[in-house]
Amino acid sequence: MRDPRIPMTPQQIPQQGVYIPVGAPWRPERFDVAVGYDERSLPEDAQLKRPPRKAHYLFQAEWAWSPMNNRLSAFYLHRGRRYWSIFDRAYDEDGPQSRWQWYQRAVVPLRQASAKQAAFWLMVELMKFDHDEAFVEEWHWIGEAGELGIAETKAIAHIVWGGDWGAFTPRVAW
Question: For residue 115, what is the enclosing H or E element?
């Protein structure tokens, strides 16, 4: 499993410039998503007791409101026995040891989505939840791309927070 790297220079951040808008994978008609900040928000049979051993690295996002107030999260997709799960691996610099903490944040049943659909649409639902519950605005930059590239993360941001792409079409198959 891939550990996130924190970019320390502008050269280490992926190019954030202009990207051709990409379409989103089809959103399944039935997509029974559960999203939350703790395990009580998720179905009991979806909750993992410990961090996943095998998870697919999606991307890393950073919010930088001020030098003393920021958020750094790496997002992963995990295939469980019955559910796809999105994990938010957040950097905790306030604890006794600065380290990455795992948080299971969103799930959908396996039978309702492919891996690409689950990765994309669970991230959309998670970011909508963050926006609605904690007033989180769009990330300031993508620190590292994984299985979801910069163009896909921009598509997620457009769906959640709006944007200036004009004729964005969110229903194009990958």
Answer: helix 115-134
